[in-house]
Amino acid sequence: MSKLLSILIAAAFATVSVGSFAAEEKKVEKKEEKKAEKKAEKKEEKKADKK
Fold this sequence. Notes:
It is a single chain. The protein is mainly α and 51 residues long. It is built from 1 helix and no strands. The chain is rod-shaped.
């Protein structure tokens, strides 16, 4: 019985760990998207200023 409990606890920790890594990766992707958007906006502003 204790082996089964140990396996269940290990599985729970593994699930939580994978979930946290996935959440961190989404945050990084959002930050990269925001940086790309800001860069594109700056380019558009420079083009508008040249005209």
